[in-house]
Amino acid sequence: MSVLNKATFNPRVVSAEYAVRGAIVLRSNEYQKQLAAGAELPFDKIIPCNIGNPQILGQKPIHFHREVLALVNVPGLVDHPEAPSIFKEDAIARAKHYLAKIPGGTGAYGHSKGHEVIRHEVCDFLERRDGYPADPETIFLTDGASQAVQGILRALIRDENDGILVPIPQYPLYSATIAMNGGSLCGYYLDEAASWGTSTDELKRAIEAGREAGKEVRALVVINPGNPTGQCLSENNMRDIVQICKDEKLVLMADEVYQENVYTEDKHFVSFKKVLKDMGPDFDDVELASFHSTSKGFTGECGRRGGYMELVNFTAEAMEQFYKMVSVNLCSNIEGQLMVGMMTNPPVEGDASYESYISQRDGVLESLKRRALKLVAAFNELEGVTCNAAEGAMYTFPKITVPEKACEEAKERGMAPDAFYATALLDATGIVVVPGSGFGQEDGTYHFRSTILPPEEAIDEVIEKTSKFHAEFMDKYR
Amino acid sequence: MSVLNKATFNPRVVSAEYAVRGAIVLRSNEYQKQLAAGAELPFDKIIPCNIGNPQILGQKPIHFHREVLALVNVPGLVDHPEAPSIFKEDAIARAKHYLAKIPGGTGAYGHSKGHEVIRHEVCDFLERRDGYPADPETIFLTDGASQAVQGILRALIRDENDGILVPIPQYPLYSATIAMNGGSLCGYYLDEAASWGTSTDELKRAIEAGREAGKEVRALVVINPGNPTGQCLSENNMRDIVQICKDEKLVLMADEVYQENVYTEDKHFVSFKKVLKDMGPDFDDVELASFHSTSKGFTGECGRRGGYMELVNFTAEAMEQFYKMVSVNLCSNIEGQLMVGMMTNPPVEGDASYESYISQRDGVLESLKRRALKLVAAFNELEGVTCNAAEGAMYTFPKITVPEKACEEAKERGMAPDAFYATALLDATGIVVVPGSGFGQEDGTYHFRSTILPPEEAIDEVIEKTSKFHAEFMDKYR
After folding, report:
1. Same domain flag for B217 and B174
2. How many CB pairs (< 8 A) connect A and B?
3. Which of B43, B115, B200, B268 has a CA 20 to 30 Å removed from the CA of A361?
């Protein structure tokens, strides 16, 4: 007799779902092993479009950042006579700066909020970005943005009567964490017909519905640019959202990890911090937690688990509790912290690494834009498929029509129709996408999320294989 | 009106305490700032003995490990013509090996359990250590051992009726995490008079007491070597513990992060995995989670946040839930994973770095042993103080007599007597220790925990300052 089985495991954990690494990904791992063992399959490789993981698909890291990491890690390397033949002079200078400011170096625990030298770099970045001062005491460096989001949700959720407003579709970190903490997810729908826009009427409806169901609605999650939906909010829209947070007493959780990833000419990223501050001192009681990460943008350093959150307008009592929560983890990993420092304080004009930095940055962003346009255009060519522009982030989220006969077969197998479609796509092509049911969607609609991250030469292959599969799938179940 | 203040914050978080980074540490941070600003204080530096953080006190990192980290991080560095003039040949070979086995390198998300190449290194290490096979599917690489412990407790605790057996004194990660998850801590006392031993009678008493209070007792935490108490369990004692877990249906949580840190000639570390397997197939239904970390031992890489857990004898259903839990975090930081790889698979005889590795390893361990002996001897010289030998781990935990008058003054200030003592010690000397009340202790007894980590020349200073302070404190309140 075991202590832990499915019936005796914490039921909040059992109820949580996380499709980005769910059944289809496990199936693709099996195929990967079979291919490695020389098996004959309908495809010769797995193309992972399920997760925003740029470097696994060949994106090169920013060279300056990596040089600094190497230099801080090897004792004495900054002063080694051969160092200048390998490392750029600004990387050596930066490493010396960090070593002077970080007691014990990368191998020691640091302050639970993160090293001050990095929190200052973040604040300087925020001030340049928003035009408003930022206080290092309000910055928490975290093991990726996921950890920060989990911390805020843990603070907010006392029991199942606490509700959190989350967009549908959403990134499943939110639904999974709310489930694990035993809270209630109050969904508000993004409007696919209006480029996945957020309407205040829909937000108010969702708040009302939550309250009618007996929930104390405590926070509003906004993902901007959107994941999986890619939309980029307008400032007008953002002001309305801040106003609702004030009127309805909601903590605003702004997931802004894709702030560097905007691909349309007529839109640009504006932070909720700036919008809130622009609205004046009347709004200094709106509590805002904003999240950023080294994993996205053009940095793409996912494996580093670097990130930060800024906590604006929280009470001193709440700040003290947040500090205690992170102190139980001692500190986030120091190299993730350094990566946050380099992301927010990159080489500037005149530095030895500046040109290479700019060329890497622009190369990645321009290429992502080309790939986003190409994929969206291709999906819109498919029978029964419509796909909004990917204004930002790293994903396309096409709406697909699943034929009646395919829906029936999916039902027989106990699968959602879009999970059935995504599984068939994997089986036929080796391409891994995540079904829309993993993110939430309006009843009766079906989608999948595909990243735009395969390298440009591979994007054509993804398009060709997906198109061929789609035509055959539609014919088979027509 | 704010959403989050102390009254509206998740009360489970509010109730949690974490003294290792508590009020005395915050006070020492303030002193640190004052010293940096040129203030005149009774001391000229802060000596942090509150936390097992070796590198902040000057312990050097293992050079091989750091070379490998540098080499894997800079694209092309392993093949750079100047690399051999800086890096040892075995470090270059190891870096090439990792780069070949880790798709996307250190900047990509990896498998949620951690990269397979590292999990295999861990299994080889476990097989050498225990003489029993280990399965990479049962290894989870984590952001330090803390994250692993938190995961197991989250799995076990459904509500306040679930009880976890925790030693008193204990490392406050356990009490804090149990509080945050809303479970119940069922304390069992270690016997100070018997070198902080664990008696089965006391364990049975604690289980009974928990059940009488209506708790379902689900797991038993054992810290071996002990933190803060430093004791090293005998195999006999461990067999009794495993038997109790079988008889009482308890998950055994074995915190073995100090397994390299044993300082007595007549004792050595034995893992619970080995003891359990030695007891034969009848015990293959005892669920064991064991934890290890790169932060302790002679590696001391705290800032890396590297660690692993091995899950033995858990059901397939439970393993699936654990996998889902970690997948929500995507993966632990890759450099922490690599550090686990190097800790478990260090240079061997014949490798270019072998001699330097051995010399660093033995140098650290021998010095820690000298420091442990010296500190314990010195504490036993103080009036009203007794201190058990630090058989292992990184701490001394002396019992102090706090005079009646000092207890009264502490009470007036709303402090525990040993917190009052530790605060006075900090104010007089700059030495930071953690009061015993932060770990739990028998009612009416008082202790503090001091690490043995200050470098040897500083240990004398710690002893001298503490002795002078202690004499004055005793005189003042006599």
Report:
1. yes
2. 285
3. B115
